[in-house]
């Protein structure tokens, strides 16, 4: 990769996570820009070959980065190879020099023959940036469903602890064989991203449901049940599942994915969020109905 800046003391690198000095510099920049630290995720073995940093380095410091995550998408019932772009960042002292633009062009050129779809999520401060590279903004929906009151029951779920090796192995096994949660917009082969959320965002909200050999990520907040993900190789009866994870106070279920199996029962409305989905696809984007990209797949 030649950005035309090597003579100024800049260099470009990728796949350097085993280099402690450079990984530390990457983490320092991620903390500064996003408040995110990847080190524990790396130490536990979840930074694998599917997550690749493409970075510009000056004086042995990472000053700009564009990362990619390789995964599979299920779109309108069809499997597609995909590259999700994330961790797009530049140190404040080096902004305005076109570094992110040059890294984006490099990433798109490097992987154009390896995937059918590029996609990313961008906050409102950079919505203007990605259409320059051929990305199109997509409108997602928020899904919810009213439920009748329920009696408290033994829910049959076991809370998992990601600090325990046996629970890590259980998660790894189920994640490796998961089926997409939705035919409209589903994800598979996203073990690394899921485990980042498990370690950093939802460490107290992950459960094993033995009856379905499934991992359930959810929270009960007053009368609202927030259902974030259901990970299983097998078809899960969502009506039965909700009877186990809702409680006597539950009035509304909020789905953070597309709940295909409740198509006739759910309400949906345009998703109000600053993180907008952008797509760059070789073929026509063929989602004709409302959808929501699974939250736990966002890089």
UniProtKB/TrEMBL annotation:
Superkingdom field: Bacteria
Keywords recorded for this protein, A-Z:
Acyltransferase, Transferase
Pfam families noted in UniProt: Acetyltransf_9
Give GO MF terms, alphabetically: acyltransferase activity, transferring groups other than amino-acyl groups
Gene3D superfamilies noted in UniProt: 3.40.630.30
Q: What is this protein called?
A: GNAT family acetyltransferase
């Amino acid at each position: 990769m030649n950005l035309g800046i090597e003579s100024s003391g800049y260099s470009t690198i990728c796949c350097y996570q085993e280099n402690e000095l450079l990984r530390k510099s990457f983490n320092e920049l991620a903390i500064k820009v996003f408040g995110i630290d990847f080190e524990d995720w790396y130490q536990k073995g979840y930074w694998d070959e599917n997550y690749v940093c493409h970075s510009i380095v000056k004086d042995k410091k990472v000053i700009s980065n564009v990362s990619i995550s390789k995964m599979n998408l299920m779109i309108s019932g069809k499997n597609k190879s995909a590259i999700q772009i994330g961790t797009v960042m530049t140190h404040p002292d080096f902004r305005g020099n076109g570094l992110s633009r040059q890294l984006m062009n490099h990433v798109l050129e490097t992987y154009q023959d390896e995937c059918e779809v590029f996609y990313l999520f961008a906050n409102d401060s950079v919505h203007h940036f990605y259409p320059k590279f051929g990305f199109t903004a997509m409108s997602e929906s928020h899904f919810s469903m009213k439920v009748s009151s329920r009696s408290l029951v033994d829910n049959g779920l076991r809370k998992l602890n990601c600090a325990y090796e046996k629970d890590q192995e259980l998660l790894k096994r189920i994640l490796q064989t998961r089926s997409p949660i939705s035919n409209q917009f589903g994800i598979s082969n996203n073990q690394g991203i899921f485990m980042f959320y498990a370690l950093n965002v939802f460490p107290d909200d992950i459960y094993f449901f033995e009856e379905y050999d499934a991992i359930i990520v959810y929270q009960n907040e007053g009368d609202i049940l927030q259902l974030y993900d259901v990970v299983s190789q097998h078809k899960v009866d969502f009506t039965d599942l909700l009877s186990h994870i809702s409680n006597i106070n539950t009035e509304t279920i909020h789905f953070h994915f597309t709940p295909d199996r409740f198509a006739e029962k759910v309400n949906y409305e345009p998703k109000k969020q600053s993180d907008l989905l952008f797509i760059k696809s070789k073929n026509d984007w063929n989602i004709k109905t409302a959808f929501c990209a699974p939250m736990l797949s966002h890089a």
